[in-house]
Design goal:
Strand content: 15-25%
Shape: globular
Oligomer: single chain
Number of helices: 12
Structural class: alpha/beta
Radius of gyration: 22 Å
Helix content: 25-40%
Number of strands: 15
CATH class of the domain at 20-77 and 88-284 and 298-320: Alpha Beta
């Protein structure tokens, strides 16, 4: 195993994976907008990029009919990138049919998407940079035909793992509560092969753990069983404890989270404990059209309060500017811009989904954010520069995936700055 590891990675894996309270773990989809946001952060703000470790959800796309290729030149989307543009709030992956005559494009299914995923991850993550890799929509027994397997089917998840190794993509495998029976075996073999540890992903919701003991959430018992299944010790394990979307009316308190932490035996021995949540709604229904809705960032408020009472202060995590369940395919989304400030998310929503007016609607959503008094200025990030220039742009981008990517880039930059502000404050009681 040792010689395999030395041959596989150059340089050998020696990176520390103990994050601390100043680090950030965003859970991001493997969609073009999110990928572009991390690429641009690495290029424009490398110091900030090093302060975060993303969890990437490999998300199978829903195949859609091919559409005419549009070539766009923009600082945020490289010309010729086949999926940097997204007309709707989902991504389309393509493969090229080979044969006589001009190349034709056809929508690719999940197997072909997973085949191309490692090449998409490389510019998003970069070589020799740890990240979490999860497959929430891919069954553990899915098979696909590998390029070098002469037609013999291979396990799809193992194929991605091997392709990541070949590209020096330092993934940490993830086992989530609710995964099918075969997932633990895949994760266990990957963690033993690469020796970067493993990630356990658990919701902090009492209704999930029906076998819990009276008076507990059951999260501690579930963690213990998952550790046994993976044959892992706490020092090699990162716990991601998820609150997912927080109720706008409140209800989840720092005390609740601290009690859940207390259920987990030897919590301080785990390599990292990461708490994630979001206030981003899973739909724009109910939000005022043609104006900004200010949504309090309850996940950030909760985290700052938890720092003052918890014996083990977690690393902060969220889902970028996306709801954990989205984006959803189907229909045409209303133009919107999601802009993060320390206390609030500004959800600037357009008026309708009439494509003929999208350009003006995006100009207006940007103008509303600029005039809100919360805009950080065009020098804050590349995303802010594009937002600042859009109201005067005669032909602004009108695909929602592009704007989700801009919102993500600004959000990552803002969260890193927020965490820096907390670094000097006492973290534990």
């Amino acid at each position: 195993m040792a010689s395999h590891q030395e041959n596989l990675f150059d340089p050998p894996f020696k990176t520390s994976l103990e994050f601390g309270v100043g680090h950030y773990v965003p859970i991001l989809k493997s969609l073009a907008g999110e990928r572009r946001a991390l690429e641009q952060m690495a290029a424009g703000a490398p110091d900030a990029r090093r302060r975060l470790t993303p969890l990437v959800e490999a998300r199978d796309p829903i195949p859609q009919p091919p559409r005419e290729r549009r070539v766009v030149a923009n600082e945020f989307a490289d010309e010729g990138d086949s999926d940097a543009w997204e007309d709707d709030d989902y991504e389309i992956a393509y493969e090229v049919e080979e044969g006589a005559g001009p190349a034709r494009k056809k929508p690719s299914g999940p197997r072909n998407y997973l085949r191309g995923l490692p090449d998409q991850l490389l510019p998003m993550i970069g070589k020799f940079s740890p990240f979490y890799l999860d497959f929430p929509t891919t069954p553990s027994d899915r098979l696909m035909t590998g390029r070098k397997s002469k037609g013999a089917p291979v396990n799809a998840i193992e194929y991605v793992y091997d392709a990541c190794r070949a590209r020096h993509l330092w993934f940490i495998p993830v086992l989530a509560v609710g995964a099918d029976d075969g997932r633990a075996a895949l994760v266990r073999v990957a963690s033993q092969t690469d020796r970067r540890g493993v990630c356990l992903r658990l919701p902090l919701l009492a209704t999930v753990y029906s076998d819990r003991r009276a008076g507990t959430l059951g999260v501690g018992d579930r963690v213990a069983r998952m550790l046994a299944e993976l044959k892992a010790s706490p020092g090699d394990v990162d716990l991601i404890l998820e609150l997912r979307q927080l109720d706008p009316a409140g209800g989840v308190t720092a005390e609740f989270v601290a009690r859940a932490f207390d259920e987990i035996a030897n919590l301080k021995e785990f390599r990292n404990v990461i708490l994630t949540g979001t206030s981003v709604p899973n739909t724009s229904a109910g939000l005022a059209r043609g104006q900004i809705t200010y949504i309090a960032r309850q996940e950030w408020t909760l985290y700052t309060l938890l720092r003052k009472i918890s014996g083990r202060v977690p690393t902060f995590g969220d889902y970028g500017v996306q709801n954990p369940d989205g984006p959803k395919a189907g229909g045409i989304p209303i133009p919107n811009l999601r802009y993060t400030t320390t206390p609030d998310l500004l959800y600037s929503l357009g008026e309708n989904n009439d494509r003929d007016t999208f350009a003006e609607q995006f100009r207006r959503t940007c103008r509303q954010v600029i005039e809100s008094g919360r805009f950080r200025g065009e020098d804050y990030s590349l995303a802010d520069l594009i937002i600042a220039r859009t109201p005067a742009d005669r032909k602004p981008r009108v695909d929602q995936g592009f704007w989700r990517g801009l919102g993500t880039l600004h959000h990552l930059t803002q969260v890193i700055e927020d965490l820096k502000q907390l670094d000097s404050e006492p973290a534990t009681r």
